[in-house]
Design a protein that fits this description.
By secondary structure, this protein is of the alpha/beta class. The protein has three domains: 12-43, no CATH class; 71-277, P-loop containing nucleotide triphosphate hydrolases (Rossmann fold); 283-458, Ribosomal Protein S5, domain 2. Helix content is 27%, strand content 25%. The chain has 13 helices and 23 strands. The strands form six sheets. It has a nine-stranded mixed β-sheet, sandwiched between helices. A four-stranded mixed β-sheet has the order 15-16-18-17. A three-stranded antiparallel β-sheet has the order 2-1-3, with no helix packed on it. Helix 9 (333-347) crosses helix 10 (372-383) and helix 10 (372-383) packs across helix 13 (451-458). It binds adenosine-5'-diphosphate and magnesium ion. Adenosine-5'-diphosphate binds at residues 98, 100-106, 140, 269, 271.
């Protein structure tokens, strides 16, 4: 007679707050969330899963912790490696967000091909396209590899078994919104379900020692569809963006546990796929020879790389007397208002009668105070309709009393300006006085002590 099999007791767990119970509830007794209880996996744990759990938990001496760089894999796609901080960190989980059509699938298919070339095995899950559609894209991009495994339209549970079977080095999920779990089927595409699936993928990655890229759609407001918490769960969050009129694509690190923030990778999209743009400054400043009124060139720092960007301003008579508009794209609105107030007070220019629009071209975002002086030039130059000096760039933070303050990374920014052929640069007088300018600079330096000096510099 066969012995009666003892089933492990079924446990339930709330995917919102983690509440555990032997009994199922339609509504979690702890966080009051509806339909958030799922069967817990406590009983399913594989025996080796916790093998080194004791090691993991035990405190170790700081001095015993191995030092050195985290291991990275350089894909050879320069701009992609750069944004990640110098290559892909093993066993990391990266979320890549972007609007539909920007090129996320293209990017990750090219990354897959680069990894396959390095002898890595990639499992590519697509819940959006059929294998044939992906094959058509691959043909267009000139990609064919037996190391890339495709798996289309399935559940999290299927994916897990494929990972166990195929043992890939990398897993690509295109997209997380299309990956559902049998356990959360009742939840539809809710935030809770998305979070659950993401958590499961991350756990799968850590247990199986694979590196994961998760594609996520973003909403019109620019947020990853689903909860912000998704961003907290992963190691890095990258945003892929496109310029409406151009074929330029920007990949920006919004969060990165293993690399610098605000690093931007620049690609050009064509029929043949994405190409790394090796000299992005040139792309961002195209008309420096004849700078029209309302513009200024600012040597920005994007992560650790200098990137010359063009700032454009438009000051036009406001139809809303007494309540003019101040609108900035790629720059802080409050900072723009502050700079306008400083110009108004110190230079007696009646900006209160003007609507002001400020734009950083190329879809760049500038958060550095070092851009203040360039923003002020764009504003004054538009307001007074005077063209900036040809081939000139500006650096300096503007204080509330109109004084110009020193900036960081001066040498790097200067070198890039010189490399791009700029002949004149405005710098904070205070910084020149410190005498820390790199000698032998091949550029004429204009000393700007306060906002009044800027006006004099601009006068024809
Ligand atoms: N035949 C083609 N020729 C040139 N570019 C194409 C072609 N097909 C697609 N693209 C480019 O690829 C983009 C779509 O890329 P895709 O990776 O599918 O985006 P996502 O996954 O972000 O929705 C299009 O917006 C277009 O720029
Ligand atoms: Mg896609």
């Amino acid at each position: 007679m066969a012995a009666k099999r003892t089933q492990p007791p079924i446990e339930f767990e709330c995917i919102e707050c983690g509440y555990q119970s032997a009994k199922y509830f339609g509504r979690c007794p702890q966080c009051q969330g509806w339909n958030t209880m799922v069967e817990s996996e406590a009983g399913e744990e594989s025996p080796d899963a916790d093998a080194n759990a004791t090691d993991k938990g035990r405190p170790q001496k700081l001095s015993d912790v191995g030092s050195g760089e985290v291991p990275r894999l350089v894909t050879g796609m320069d701009e992609f490696d750069r944004v990640l901080g110098g290559g892909i960190v093993s066993h990391s989980v990266t979320l890549i967000g972007g609007e539909p059509g920007v090129g996320k699938s293209t990017l990750l298919l090219e990354v897959s091909a680069a990894l396959a070339q390095l002898g890595k095995k990639v499992l590519y899950y697509s819940g959006e396209e059929s294998a044939l559609q992906i094959k058509l894209r691959a043909d267009r991009l000139g990609i064919a590899s037996e190391r890339i495994l495709l798996f289309t339209i399935g559940t999290l549970e299927d994916l897990k078994s494929h990972v166990r079977e195929a043992r890939p080095d990398f897993l690509i999920i295109d997209s997380i919104q299309t990956l559902t779990s049998k356990k959360t089927a009742g939840l539809g595409g809710s935030a809770a379900s998305l979070r659950y699936v993401t958590a499961e993928v991350i756990e799968l990655a850590k247990k199986s020692g694979i590196t994961v890229f998760i594609i996520g759609h973003i909403t019109k407001e620019g947020q990853l569809a689903g909860p912000k918490t998704l961003e907290h769960m992963v190691d890095a969050v990258l945003y892929f963006q496109g310029e409406a009129q151009a074929d330029i694509r920007l990949l920006r690190a919004e969060k990165n546990r293993f690399g610098p923030l605000n690093e931007v990778g620049i690609f050009q999209m064509s029929e043949r796929g994405l190409a790394s743009v090796s000299d992005p400054s040139q792309f961002l400043i195209q008309n420096r020879q004849s700078q029209p009124p309302g513009t200024a060139i600012f040597p920005a720092m994007s992560g650790m790389r200098p990137l010359l960007t063009e700032i454009q301003a438009l000051a036009s008579e406001s139809p809303f007397a007494g309540n003019p508009r101040r609108i900035a794209i790629g720059f802080d609105n409050y900072r723009l208002s502050m700079l306008i107030s400083i110009i108004e007070k110190k230079l007696k220019l009646p900006f209160y009668k003007s609507d002001v629009f400020l734009n950083i071209t190329g879809g760049m975002v500038i958060r550095e105070p070092a851009a203040d002086l360039a923003v002020c030039q764009a504003l004054i130059s538009s307001f007074k309709n005077i063209a900036p000096r040809p081939n000139s760039a500006l650096l300096g933070e503007v204080g509330l009393t109109g004084e110009i303050r020193p900036v960081s990374f001066l040498e790097t920014r200067l070198k890039e300006s010189i490399r791009q052929g700029f002949s004149t640069i405005c710098l904070p007088a205070a910084q020149i006085a410190q005498g820390r300018l790199p000698i032998n600079h091949d550029i004429s330096v204009i000393s700007i002590g306060n906002i009044g000096d800027l006006l004099n510099f601009l006068k024809p």
